[in-house]
Every structure is written in structure tokens, then in C-alpha cells.
Amino acid sequence: MPVEPEMASEPVGMVIGTEDATPLSFWVGVSPDAYLQLDDAVIVDTEVPGRGIVRIAGLVQEVRARHEGATFDTDVFLIDRGVLPVDTAVAAQVVATRFEPEVFVPPMPGLPALRARGKDRDEALYFDQMTRRVVGGLSRDGEPMFLDLDFLDGTRGAHVNISGVSGVATKTTYAMFLLYALFHSPVLGGYRGNTKAIVFNVKGEDLMWLDTPNARLTQAQREDYERLDLPVGPFESVGLWAPPRGGAGGQAIPHVESRSNGVTAYYWTVREFVREKYLRFLFAEADDERSQIADLVARVESFLDRECEDDPDHEATVLHGGYPVRSFDELCDAIRANVEDDHSPWRGRLSDATVAAFVRRLDSGRFRLDQNHLIWGREAEDPRRHRIDWEANQVTVVDIHNLHDRAKRFVTGVVIKRLFEHKERMGRREPLAFLVLDELNRYAPREGWSPIKEVLLDVAERGRSLGMILIGAEQTASEVERRVIANSAFRVVGRLDTAEAQRSEYGFLPAVTRSRASILKPGSMILQQPHIPIPVQIRFPFPSWATRADEAAPGASTDPFGAFEGD
Amino acid sequence: MVVLRADPWAPEYGMGFQARLEEELPVADPLVETLDWSTPLSPTPAEEGPVWFVDGVRRVELRLLAEDGGRRAPGLFGSFAIGSVCCDGRATFDEHQVGRAVVAGGGVMPGRVEVSVGVQRVAFEPATEPSLDPDRPLWKLQNLMQEAEAAMAARVSARAGRLVVVDGPLSFFHPTDAPVVGMVKRFSRHYLEEGREHLLALLGPGERTPLFALGDEDQPVQRYAWYLRLVPLRVPWHDQAGIVRCEVRAGVGLDTAVGLADRVTALLPAYAGRPTDPRAPQNLAPVGGLEAWLRHRMGDGRLLRRALLRWMVEGDGGG
Questions:
Q1: How distant is the Cα of A36 from the closest Cα of chain B, in angstroms?
Q2: In 3D, which of B98, B11, B1, B24 has the Cα closest to residue B56?
Q3: CA-based nearest residue in chain B for residue A84
Q4: Taking a C-beta distance cutoff of 8 angstroms, is the pair A218, A560 a contact?
Q5: What are the C-alpha distances in Å from A441 to residues A444, A462, A472, A498, A561?
Q6: Could you say which of B92, B274, B292 has the minimum Cβ distance to residue A78?
Q7: What is the secondary structure of A522-546 as a DSSP string?
Q8: What was the ipTM of the complex prediction?
Q9: Tell me: domain A133-263+388-555, CATH 3.10.20.30, correct?
Q10: A105: buried, middle or exposed (CB in 10 Å: 19+, 13-18, 0-12)?
């Protein structure tokens, strides 16, 4: 089959001999009529005596240009005036990614270097070895970049971790793009329809429009999707959940500012709280708490479950000691009364100090949950409808951005635990469940212990075999539990704070790439994946789903969209 | 059979290195343009247009002793490179050429020597000098370079009357009517009597003396020459610093010579050498850049020297 002209690798220069060429890194002198930019794929065929031709493929890591023959800084002004003759030299440093066959020799100076295109590029980036691949964005030169699904779905690895400064790193947007690519390409095969994702909306109401096309997408942005072989549109199957608004009686009205329909309010009932043992997530604060209080929480949970009977008059409540517990407040009062009673078996042999600490935390936790109306009693009408149901839609968005910190931990803890237990019961990997959670540093901090951290660690360490894939994000990876990050097969970095970029958590980024991370624009990320030995800068298309009310409006003006412009 | 044997000393030692053409002091006639030598001439700024600078560099690779039967003569392996720079708003390297010679004195003609340096073959063309003076082989090398330089200047200037400035005095190898200007950096001879030389101290940058003719007894007008100042005189300098002497062949005619003198005088201060150049300001910036570039084009001296020594071992010095 003839190779299309744009798919044929083209000569761009030759290996220079004035810098050492080593197997892992060498410099290419760029011809005056060609160019190489960062992240371009380059191939050099070098002949090894007795071994034949070895193809060395690599990626451009650095490009430099200089005046040859100029010795002083001021020479540039003379050169500009046409007084001093010089040559201009452009050279690109290439970091080798692949040797075929694997003979680790340097390319010989003087050998032609080619910009890899088509099949050669696929080989340089190991795309040819990815049997199941999903697009992860566009490379600098506008070609698709692929991720190996084997490392995402648990076959050989799982999880994605995304770091970057809030606001400009577009972490959640990238996570959503990955999900969009997964759900809109044939890569998941027969499981595509049943694969689910739960996304926590932690900031603004950006994710509350996933089901609506983006009316402000430009033609150029549409072409990005075309190049990636993806349709342009919203997520088709989206469930939107928000906490209830206060003071609305028995009807739970979702607390959302920007849209009034299509969102369901979520809450849990007193009965669920008792039966599912959610008490621990009220205590989900990060401290070194494997100790006394955690013990007491576990005791209380089990006593509650044992001693409470289902309320025959209402599906949301329970009976304790024959009396109905009609609200969350009453439940907390009952808990308090039991643990403070010296003769109650609930507290066991725990000291008064521990009980006091328990009660203090219980009170502050209950205040926050009450404030956000998360646990309902007798007032609940049709509570089943308000239980977050991730089976109903492909993507389930749980809005927690309005909640108090404690309430956020409670909701995430409860949802993730339920999902994890569900996957555990299913006992097989497929269909996969994706979990998108920003602000990981809040839920799985490096220091201390908390129930939700424990659940997240479970997901990170066992989720791979259970088919529960964590797409976690955080502003600073240095503040997140090491094991959560270490278990991520894909590391993605958006715009990084310069000081943060120097930390050891980003050791996988070469020095040049670290500097680049501090100037990344929204929509550009640096992607490290198991197959490719060096991280590569990518960009991803502007969301084809709305992220704001004015993008959702039909016939919205074509004025391009503030913060993300210029990707 | 001529046998060549190396002198182990590095070529920088043991030879007078400023090989100079031994000429008679020419006859000067200061009155060809004007009788008035009291004030400098300030030509109006030069018309725009490209100017070419031509220069050459040379290097002794290895000194040697040539033996032909009973005769022994000093000699050398030398390289030279000549090239040009075109300045037309941008300064770009134009054509260049590398030459190599094996020179012996005393009329001994060595054979052509070809050695391998890496994957390249490098050939040294034979040349000889009648004198046994140890400096003569270097003089010959210089001569070969100037010959090539003059040929290049003629070639460059032949293309549609371009202005060509050659670094160094004009040689007589390629007499031409083309506007080739020789520029002499070194102020070593006094062509003018003291009364007129006094004018040099008064020159400002971009100003020149009147033309004077140079020649000999038989042919009194061979060249027209003038002095010009490149940069303002600085306090610690003597008053003849920053001055160059330019010359054109008389064949161009006096009127053309005056025109060229005006143009070159107005033009050259813009190309004055960088203060960082050891021969600033007379070593013009384009020429300094060209010299470094040409030196590079001659190849690595250490590799050539090693290749020559190996040739002497393996090829038995041609004997």
C-alpha cells in the first residue's frame, strides 16, 4: 500500500558530532529549511557492525539556536547591522524512547534524522504495541496521542493522577475528556454501555452541564475532535445530583444555582445511616485516629445496627428501644445518651475523656450534616428517589461544592464506600467504574488517617482488580498519600507552581519538562504513561459539552470563552 | 628522490612569523588629487550598496627538512583559506576556498603529499623556493595565499562592478580595473613627508587625506592611496591609531579612484573592528568574523599534524 505523503517520515537534519551522542540522548542539527519542536518524534537508523540496522526513536526534549562565530553578547547588534558575518545553528536534543532491535548504541554523527510520521511515529511512541488504545489528547504537532487501555482498566495497571494549580490546570476538564474519549470510542467493546463513572463536582457548577452541547465550540475546536476520531457533543447519559435546599418541607429541592431542571436532590435516611454504618464518615477528619475514638465509633455503629428495628410507619426511620427515631437529631441524641450512660454497654471500657471527645465530634458533625440536610427522617417523601443511583446513568455527577468541608467528606466517603462495596460484591473487573475526585489532598492527605483515606487507599490498591478506577486530582501531589499516587499508572501534570514542581513527587519530569510545567496553558497537560519512558506534552480539545449556563444556551454568541481561550 | 623529515618543534617556534614582502620603498606623489594637504577631506555618506570583504588566513602545519640527494633545504606543510563576506544589510559568508601546500626551499621540489584525516583525503600541492633562507617557505605560503586572494577578489569584483575590499595591500598577481580596494592595517612605512603626515592626526572618523600616487622610478603611478580614520581617537592613543591606508590600482583612473576613496572612507567606519578584537579597530568586524570562520575551514591543526607524522612513518617520508 502506498504511504500517504504526509505520513512518510521526512528528513529534518543530522546527528551532530560536537555534542556527545549517547544511546539515551543525542543532538540533531536541524537543517535550515526544516524545524523540530519540543516533543516531536525523531528516528535515526544507525548501522551496528554485525547487528545490522538499529532504529533509534526518540522525542525532542530541548531545541536551541545560536550564532556560530559570535563570541560576545554584543555581537548580535553587529550581526543585526550586517557588519559581522555568522552562521546560525539550530540543534535539538532527542531523548531516546525505543531501540529496534534493542542494541543500546548511540547514533553515529552525520546520520540523517527524520521526523517520524505515520507508522514510524506510532512505533516511536509505542502506539504499535498498544492493542487497545484510547485517545488521550493531541500532541504538539496536532497528531493524536494514545493511552494504553491495558494500563487503565486494571489489566496491567490502573488509575490516573492529575496535579496542577487550580483554575489554570484544567484538571477536571481533562478527566472529563478522558471519560468522554472512553465512552465515545469502541475501545471498551461490549462493556461500553455498562461502564459507569461517578464524578464529584467540587468547585463551581462546571460539571452540572455535562448533558448539554457546548454552543460556543468553534470550527477549529470541532476539527480537533475529528482528528481524534471522536464525535462532537455532550455526554449522553448523565445523572446530576445535588444536595437539597433547606426549608423546602418534605420535597427535596436540589441546591443548584445555575439550572433548575434535570438535577435530583440527594440525601440519605436515618435508616440507611444506621444500617450502612455511615457514622464513621461523620468522623472523617484526618488525624492519627486508629485509636480510641475509632474504636468507639465502630462499637456505636454495631450497637445501632443491632438495637434499631425498622420503623414500620416510615421507610426512612428506625425504632430504638421501641420508640421511633424520627430525625437525624433524635438519632444523635440517642447515640449521645447511650455513650454517656456509664452503665451502657455501648461505651465499653473507654474512658470519659474518649467519650467526651467522641461527643464533641459527633456534635460538630451532626451540626454540619443538619445544616446541609443530608440525613432525612420522617419528613422524607419518597426517599428512594433521592438515593444516589449510579446505575441509572453512565455518568453520575455528585455536586458537593456547596457543602461544608465535613459534609463533603461525609458524602464522598459514603458514596465511594458504597461503590467499592458494590464492586467487591460483583467480584469481577468489568464493567469498569470510574471515580473522578478532585482535591485528593483533602480526602487522602499524606499525614494522618481517616476513614475516607482508608477507602481511597483500598480503591488505589485493590481497585485495579475490582475494576474501580480512580481518576484523582489535586493541586499539590506532595500533600497526597504516597500510595495513592504510586498506584496510578498515568501521571498527568497541568500548570504547576514553580516551587511545587521541584518536589520529589514530580521526579518523573525531566528538568526541562518541570520548567515547562510552570508555563502550561489551560488545555495543555504533560502526560506520563507506562509505555513511553519520557513524559509528553499534550493538549486536549475544548469541551464539546457545556461547562457554564451561557455555553448551554442555544444560539449563544460565538465569542470564545474566556479562561480557556488560546489553548 | 626528495625525502621529507619533520621538525618536531611546534611550528609557532623557530621561524620569523611576520613574513613580509621585501619591497623597495615606493616613490610617492602627494599632489595627484589636490595641492592642499592642510585639512582632511570629509566625503558625504556613502551610497547604499553591497560591499565585499576578501581575506585569507594561513597556518603552518609542520615544519620539515627536505633532502634531495645531498641537498638539504628547509620547508613546511602549510594550509591557507581565503573567502569573502558580502555585506548588503546582512553580513553573509560568500565563496571560500582552502589550499594546502608542501613547500621546500633551495630549489628542491617535493612530491605531492596526500594523507588521510579520518574519512577524508587531504592533499598538499608541491611548491618550491630558490632561497635557502629558513623564512622563505613561509613567505612562499603567504604568496600562494595572496595569489588566491587576489584571484578571488578579481572574480568577485568582475561580477557587475562590485565594491571589494581586500584585507592587506594589493598584490600584482591579477591586475584588474575592477574596483578592488586594498586596506592595510599596519602603519609601518612612511610614504609621506612629515609636513603632510601631520594631516593624519587631524583626521576624524570617516575623513581621509587626499590621494597620493605610489610607484617606482620606471612607472611612478601604479597605485593611488589614501589614509582614513575608522573611529574617534581615544585619549590614551597615539594620534595615528585607528587609521588605515587604502589603495586602488592606478588602472581605474584618477576620477574613479577619487570616487572609490570617498565611498570607502564614508563606508568603513561602520565596519570598524570590535573593541574586543586584539587588532581593533583596524581589523574590521566582517574581516575578523571571516578570519575565524576561515581558520575553522582549514580543519583541526592537531589532526593534520598527526596525519602528516603518520605519513612520514608509513610512507617513509616519500623516500
A1: 24
A2: B98
A3: B286
A4: yes
A5: 5, 20, 10, 19, 29
A6: B274
A7: TTEEEEE-TTSSS-EEEE-PPPSB-
A8: 0.80
A9: no
A10: middle
Q: How many CB pairs under 8 A join A and B?
A: 42
Asked if A81's CB is within 8 angstroms of B286's CB, the reply is: no
* pLDDT reading at A288 higher than 60: no
DSSP state of B11: T
Report the amino acid identity of residue A226.
E
Q: How far is B288 from chain A (nearest CA, A)?
A: 8
pTM (predicted TM-score):
0.78
Name residue B155's amino acid. Answer: R
Which one, of A198, A191, A145, A209, lies nearest residue A175 by Cα? A198
Q: Residue A119: is its pLDDT beyond 50?
A: yes
Q: What is the DSSP letter of A208?
A: G
The DSSP bridge pattern shows strands B163-167 and B51-68 to be parallel
A74, A83, A88, best to mutate vs chain B, most B CBs in 10 Å = A83
Locate B131 and state its grid cell. 632561497
- Chain B CB within 8 Å of residue A110 CB: no
Adjacent-strand bridge partners of A491: A161, A528
Report pLDDT for A567.
Answer: 39
The pairing of beta strand A41-48 with beta strand A112-115: antiparallel
> Over the stretch A455-492, which tens digit does the pLDDT of each residue have?
889 889 988 888 899 999 998 888 998 899 999 999 99
Give the C-alpha distances (Å, rounded to integers) separating B316 from A477, B128, B301: 71, 21, 21
B91-104 vs B120-128, strand pairing mode: parallel
Sequence ranges of the domains in chain A: 5-124, 133-263+388-555, 268-376
User: Does A79 contact B at CB distance below 8 Å?
Assistant: yes
Which residues make Cβ contacts (< 8 Å) with residue A216, sequence separation at least 6?
Answer: A550, A551, A556, A557, A558, A559, A560, A561
Output the CA angle B116-B117-B120, nearest 5 degrees.
75
Q: Which of the residues B293, B294, B295, B297 would you substitute to probe the A interface, choosing the one with the greatest number of A C-beta atoms within 10 Å?
A: B293
pLDDT in tens, A261-271: 888 889 888 88
* Residue listed under C-alpha cell 486530582: A473
pLDDT tens string B229-286: 999 988 888 888 899 999 999 888 899 999 999 999 999 999 998 888 888 889 999 9
- Is residue A140 a contact partner of residue A537, using CB atoms and an 8 Å limit? yes
